[in-house]
Design a protein that fits this description.
The chain has about 400 residues and is mainly alpha-helical. Helix content is about 50%, strand content about 10%. Helix 14 packs antiparallel against helix 15. The chain is rod-shaped, with a radius of gyration of 38 Å.
Amino acid sequence: MRRTRLRITKARVRRGSSWQLYYCVVVPKLGGGRTRRFFQFSPEGKREADTFLQISKTRKENEGTAALSIPETLRIEAVKCERLLEPVSATLTDATQFFLKHAKPVGGTKTLSDGIKELLESKRRAGKRESYTRILGWVLNAFERNFHGRNVNDITRHDVESWLDRIDNLTTRKNRIRDLSILFEFCRRRGYCGLNPLENIERPDITYKRPEIFTVNEAAALLTMAALHPELELVPTIAIGLFAGLRMSEIKQLDWRNVDFEHEIIDVDESIAKTRQQRNVDMGNSVVMWLRPHVQTKGGIIPAGFRKKMEQLRALAGITKWPDNGLRHSFGSYHVACFQNPNMTALQMGHATTDTLFKHYRNYRIRKKDAEAYWKLAPTAGAAKKVIQFAAK
């Protein structure tokens, strides 16, 4: 294939009824072909042609053949755009890439609502638990209601921060940032937006409060009232929570077939464990004593109408404020305070290390005598009604 060279030639051009001679500078085009620039066939025209040829050669050496193909109108527009971008220290390439990412997402435009539906469906296909996807969906749909009809790539950091500013609790704010980041990172990977608008949002620093637990007398009251009101069927739930430390979500799925009195262990299998890893929890004397009178061969630990019955028990026990995750927090705090073995406590609770125990579960203000009293809470032997002995005040 013949290649066009940058050069000066002489050319005859018809002007009306006559032919005129001109100097012609031939300029190669990107991708093939040529353009021609004509100059008067005179000493002055020859100097202009030579100057234009030299400029074209210099541009070609510096910028390649592509520079020679830029129309003058485009060059003028490029200079104008460069001046507009100068205050923000951006280049034409930066501006072009930003436009392509945001105005023309590579994955196509997607409404926020459809993006959320696609994310949740992806989580379900990946085997995430329904409880997780339900809570995640609740948070994301609450966000979407404030930006209904907007596309994913239209949401800016300012939009997100305005929504987050309504949240005063720092822990809640941090959790919302996490959930929204999951959504926008998913959409970024799918090509629905150019970047994650939460990427540069400041994460709150949380000062974790001492975990709230039941006092020994409150734990005693719960067990006593549950025993005195067998119609509530809550002794196993309270005993397993206080003395075995299972998560409430695990207790709700626990079956009596998982309670092994022969070996005195509770089998928390992978289908109900939060971490999806099976673990055996030692029952200990306290759990065994409280569970034996209520043992069944099979069936769930949690009774029907669980929430209503728990509210009744709370009222009967005089518990005005139920500590967050109170049963499990109480187990962790009293166990490590009494037995002074953090590794054993962490193992019972299903933690790989003691970090989570010390950060979220251990209450350091428990006195040794209170911890010992906690683990001595037991049904009164031989009593017609299973009333425990309250710890001394």
